[in-house]
């Protein structure tokens, strides 16, 4: 376990707000859109979720690092957040099955962070002012220099990032002799989504984000899945066109998070950038078919237009709503075997209330 050599660090927000603290991880400078996650556990899964690519993550749990890190708890092959912001950075850990300390992990992955800051104040500021770009630095505390670097960072609005985190090569996952073949369009998929399909007798072939549908069809899948991922869905014409063609084919189609937004765009329902998004593992969602509430894991900064969905009730049915703010959490396309949810039924981290959605997709392939 490495000793931490901490130096002064600074967090500068786009609106000029400044927080001073100490370095965490690699000494350096990093930028991105600042957001926060309210989960009380699962920090490594959050760090490695490709949906967070390009973002600086504020962790609201007071202690980060206290149970170390373990390779099998990663949701992708590397850390995907651009930087970490936390209160207590705890390098010493006491979990026997952990592989390494958080400092060793961050140094190995090259992650820059800041700790010993008032994360409650930061979160309250984001909730009030909205998501914005920010910069963390432990190389310099010169605000003039940091302001210049921050001014060069592009807005997340209009930014296509899915193709940057997608697999570069086609690969497979699961038992080749499984009953169902699922074609996965990888926009930044989490490992536990693949695990959830494999547990349900599915064999998957995972395709790069921009793979033409003609190539995917050649494999002869029983159903299609559109994954989660980072960035704005609006510029992803390649994915929207594939979704439209799948709807014409009328095979089962399931979308999660970014995949949900792509499905909406495929039926001409627009998306929008949210004020500060949903990121946590305790979001209450109502299933409108059953009337039951699900506690869900969420991670998104864009949403599907409620007004457009309501105006197109003849072709799209709203299936789930968020009980905190009435945003759209799920939908299905009428007359098609296509549905999607805005949240993460595979969780990891989070509750398992919504894992029935994987079973529903399998039933569509069966029938």
Automatic annotation (TrEMBL):
Binding residue positions for L-glutamine: 51, 229, 231, 258, 261, 299, 301-302
Catalytic activity: L-glutamine + H2O = L-glutamate + NH4(+); hydrogencarbonate + L-glutamine + 2 ATP + H2O = carbamoyl phosphate + L-glutamate + 2 ADP + phosphate + 2 H(+)
Associated pathway: Pyrimidine metabolism; UMP biosynthesis via de novo pathway; (S)-dihydroorotate from bicarbonate: step 1/3; Amino-acid biosynthesis; L-arginine biosynthesis; carbamoyl phosphate from bicarbonate: step 1/1
A biological process term (GO) from this entry: glutamine metabolic process
Limits of the Carbamoyl-phosphate synthase small subunit N-terminal domain: 7-137
Keyword DNA-binding appears in the UniProt entry: no
GO molecular function: ATP binding; carbamoyl-phosphate synthase (glutamine-hydrolyzing) activity; glutaminase activity
Enzyme class, UniProt record, top EC level: ligase
Family: Belongs to the CarA family.
PANTHER family: CARBAMOYL-PHOSPHATE SYNTHASE SMALL CHAIN (PTHR43418:SF7), MULTIFUNCTIONAL TRYPTOPHAN BIOSYNTHESIS PROTEIN-RELATED (PTHR43418)
HAMAP family (UniProt xref): CPSase_S_chain
UniProt name for this protein: Carbamoyl phosphate synthase small chain
Gene: carA
